[in-house]
C-alpha cells in the first residue's frame, strides 16, 4: 500500500495547512506551545462563551476563518453547510488540525448530534438544529450513561412515557457535561416491555425545559469535569425523536462508531512524546528528569512511539473502510482501546521520568515539568478507558463482531 499522499491529497493538505497557518489565533498557538491540555473541540465552545474578551474573540475569529474556507463541517453535505469532504480528505483535515492543536468548530455537537440528525433525522429537525449547531449557538450534552447503565448501556432505565403529543421523562443520567449545555441528545426507555435493545428511543431536548437539574462531579484532577443530571417530569414534544420510536439503539450505535474512530488521537499522542523528549533536552528539563531517570525509561518511550504509529495506521484503516462504506465497528473499538491505554501508559512513563517533580500540580510553578501536562494527564487518563464504552466492552465487540466468536 502506498502511504504517500496522491498529488490531489498533497494539494488539499497544503490548503489546510495554509488555512491554519494564516488564521489560527495567537491564543491557540500559545496553548499549543505549553500548558495543560484542554481537549480538542471543547476549548472552542468554552471560549465562545467566555467572559475573557481575548478568548471570545479568538473563538469567533477562528470559526469565521473555518467557515470562509468551507471547513466548519468537513463531513456534512454542502446542503447543510458542510464541505462534503471524502473520508480520506477528512482524515487529512483532522490530522493537520491535531498537529496544530487547532480546536475543531462544532465539537461533539458537530460530530455526534449532527451526524445523527443528518443520517436519521427529519428534514424539519435538520433545518431547526443543524445551523445553530454549526454556529455554536447550540452546545450539546450527550445523555447516554446512567448509574446502573454504563458498560451495559442497553440496561438504561431513564423513562420517556408518551402522553399525547409529548413524552414525559423521569430518571437520571451520569457523566457528560450538562452544565452550560443548550440541548441534549440522549437515549430514553420508551417501551419497558420490549427486549432491552428494542425499547429505547433517541430523543433530543432543550436543556432549559423545566424539570432538569445538574450537579457537578469532582474527578481525580480536582475539577468538575462531568455531571449527574436529573430529569423530573420533563415534557418533550414527540416530534423530537430522531429515527424510529423504540429503535434508538440503532441510531446510538451509529453515533458511537463515530465517537470511537478518532483519527486525531495518534497524532496527539505522538506530539506528547515529542514534547516530552524536547523538554528533557533543555537545561530545566534535565533538572526535572534527574539525568538517569530518562535513561531508565528510554525503552518505554521508544515503545510508546511505535505504538502511536500502530494507532495511526489503525486510524488510517478505519478511514479507508469508511470511505469504502464497509463495516468498521471492531476496528473503531480497537482504536479506542489502543488510544486510551497508550495515553495511560505514556502518562505513567512521563511521571517516572520526572520523579518527585511530577507531584507539582501548580501549572505556573517553575518546578512543574511542562506546566504539569503529564501530571494532569496521568489523572485525567483514568477516564479514557471508561467513557465511550469501557474497554472491556470494546473487547467483547471485537470478539463477537470482528472475530465471530460466540457470546459467553
Describe the structure.
The protein has 15 helices and eight strands. With 408 residues, it is α+β, with helices and mostly antiparallel strands. It folds into three domains: 7-105, Acyl-CoA dehydrogenase/oxidase, N-terminal domain (Butyryl-Coa Dehydrogenase, subunit A, domain 1, Orthogonal Bundle); 140-247, Butyryl-CoA Dehydrogenase, subunit A, domain 2 (Beta Barrel), CATH 2.40.110.10; 260-402, Butyryl-CoA Dehydrogenase, subunit A, domain 3 (Up-down Bundle). It has a four-stranded mixed β-sheet with strand order 1-4-5-8. The protein has a four-stranded antiparallel β-sheet with strand order 2-3-7-6, with no helix packed on it. The longest helix is centred in the last third of the chain and has 26 residues, at 298-323. The radius of gyration is 22 Å and the shape is globular. The two termini are 37 Å apart.
Strand content: 5-15%
Tell me, what's the shape?
globular
Low-confidence stretches: 37-42
Question: Largest sheet, order of strands side by side?
Answer: 1-4-5-8
Q: Which topology of the largest domain does CATH recognise?
A: Butyryl-CoA Dehydrogenase, subunit A, domain 3
Number of domains: 3
Overview features:
single chain, 408 residues, alpha+beta, Butyryl-Coa Dehydrogenase, subunit A, domain 1, Butyryl-CoA Dehydrogenase, subunit A, domain 2, Butyryl-CoA Dehydrogenase, subunit A, domain 3, four-stranded mixed sheet, four-stranded antiparallel sheet, 15 helices, 8 strands, 50% helix
Amino acid at each position: 500500500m502506498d502511504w504517500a499522499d496522491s498529488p490531489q491529497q498533497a494539494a488539499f493538505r497544503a490548503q489546510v495547512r495554509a488555512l491554519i497557518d494564516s488564521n489560527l489565533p495567537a491564543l491557540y498557538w500559545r496553548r499549543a506551545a505549553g500548558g495543560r491540555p484542554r481537549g480538542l473541540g471543547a476549548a472552542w465552545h468554552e471560549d465562545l462563551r467566555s467572559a475573557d474578551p481575548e478568548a471570545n474573540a479568538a473563538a469567533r475569529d477562528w470559526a469565521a476563518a473555518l467557515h470562509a474556507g468551507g471547513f466548519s463541517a468537513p463531513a456534512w453535505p454542502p446542503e447543510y453547510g458542510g464541505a462534503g469532504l471524502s473520508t480520506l480528505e477528512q482524515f487529512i483535515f483532522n490530522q493537520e488540525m491535531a498537529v496544530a492543536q487547532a480546536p475543531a468548530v462544532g465539537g461533539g455537537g458537530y460530530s455526534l448530534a449532527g451526524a445523527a440528525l443528518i443520517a436519521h433525522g427529519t428534514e424539519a429537525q435538520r433545518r431547526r438544529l443543524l445551523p445553530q449547531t454549526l454556529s455554536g449557538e447550540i452546545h450539546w450534552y450527550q445523555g447516554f450513561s446512567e448509574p446502573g447503565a454504563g458498560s451495559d448501556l442497553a440496561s438504561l432505565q431513564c423513562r420517556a412515557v408518551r402522553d399525547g403529543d409529548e413524552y414525559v421523562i423521569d430518571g437520571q443520567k451520569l457523566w457528560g457535561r450538562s452544565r452550560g449545555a443548550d440541548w441534549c441528545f440522549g437515549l430514553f426507555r420508551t417501551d419497558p416491555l420490549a427486549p432491552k435493545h428494542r425499547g429505547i428511543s433517541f430523543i433530543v431536548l432543550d436543556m432549559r425545559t423545566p424539570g432538569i437539574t445538574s450537579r457537578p462531579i469532582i474527578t481525580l484532577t480536582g475539577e468538575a469535569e462531568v455531571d449527574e443530571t436529573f430529569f423530573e417530569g420533563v415534557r418533550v414534544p414527540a416530534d423530537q425523536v430522531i429515527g424510529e420510536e423504540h429503535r434508538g439503539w440503532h441510531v446510538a450505535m451509529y453515533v458511537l462508531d463515530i465517537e470511537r474512530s478518532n483519527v486525531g488521537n495518534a497524532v496527539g499522542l505522538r506530539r506528547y512524546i515529542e514534547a516530552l523528549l524536547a523538554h528533557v533536552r533543555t537545561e530545566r528539563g534535565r533538572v526535572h528528569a534527574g539525568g538517569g531517570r530518562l535513561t531508565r525509561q528510554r525503552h518505554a518511550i521508544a515503545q510508546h512511539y511505535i505504538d502511536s504509529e500502530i494507532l495511526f495506521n489503525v486510524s488510517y484503516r478505519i478511514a479507508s473502510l469508511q470511505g469504502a462504506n464497509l463495516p468498521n465497528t471492531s476496528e473503531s473499538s480497537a482504536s479506542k482501546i489502543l488510544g486510551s491505554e497508550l495515553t495511560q501508559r505514556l502518562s505513567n512513563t512521563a511521571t517516572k521520568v520526572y520523579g518527585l517533580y511530577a507531584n507539582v500540580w501548580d501549572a505556573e510553578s517553575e518546578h512543574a515539568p511542562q506546566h504539569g501536562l503529564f501530571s494532569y494527564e496521568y489523572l485525567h487518563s483514568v477516564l479514557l478507558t471508561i467513557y465511550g464504552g469501557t474497554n472491556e466492552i470494546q473487547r467483547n465487540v471485537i470478539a463477537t463482531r470482528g472475530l465471530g466468536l460466540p457470546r459467553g
